[in-house]
Write a structure and sequence with these properties.
Blueprint lengths: L9 E3 L11 E3 L5 H9 L6 H4 L11 H12 E6 L4 E9 H15 L5 E3 L10 E7 L1 H12 L7 H10 L9
Antiparallel strand pairs: 1-2, 3-4, 4-6, 5-6
Length: about 170
């Protein structure tokens, strides 16, 4: 499909109350055929509010799915004062409940899901899956990245740096 458009990306500055956030770019596509095709391929409008775990995927794809979720909606936080790490992943309660079950099955880490707070778009169904401590976070990340050839490089580098892991993928 060709678009034949000269529309520019919209540059969006972060709100003043979030000075550490980076600017964003917005691409607007107003094409019904394109939109209908995305719906046919599985696009879910307003997915942040209604996302569920895709039960149709094979178990061998659980880890790559969770890695993509972590890359997109997850955070690895390092508390320098306590030298302690925390993982958080944001999503709907339905999505995170199933993700937490899978993480527990493969790593033994018990899920803790909390209502999201201090979020720009907090609604009644936004939750955060969290676990902390260097051992639990290290166990999760080793499981998550084991055998991975596709991941968000900046998060992978942070993992390698915090856990003193050398890897040929890190330049």
């Amino acid at each position: 499909m060709e678009f034949n458009s000269d529309r520019r990306l919209k540059y969006i500055l972060p709100p003043k109350k979030y000075p550490n956030r980076k600017p964003q770019y917005l691409l607007v596509i107003e094409n019904k055929t394109f939109y209908d095709n995305l719906l046919y391929q599985g696009l879910v409008p307003n997915k942040s509010y209604v996302a569920k775990f895709p039960e149709h995927i094979k178990e061998c794809f659980y880890k790559p799915f969770i890695r993509g979720l972590y890359d997109g909606d997850g955070c690895l936080y390092h508390n320098t004062k306590q030298n302690s790490n925390t993982i958080s992943i944001t999503g709907t309660s339905e999505l995170l409940d199933r993700v937490g079950d899978i993480i527990e099955k493969y790593t033994g880490i018990k899920k803790r899901i909390h209502k999201a707070q201090n979020s720009i778009e907090v609604d009644k169904n936004t939750r955060v899956l969290m676990f902390g401590g260097n051992n639990q976070v290290g166990t999760f990340l080793r499981w998550l990245y084991d055998g991975s050839k596709m991941h968000l490089l900046r998060k992978y580098i942070k993992y390698c740096t915090l856990y003193n892991i050398s890897n040929s993928f890190v330049a």
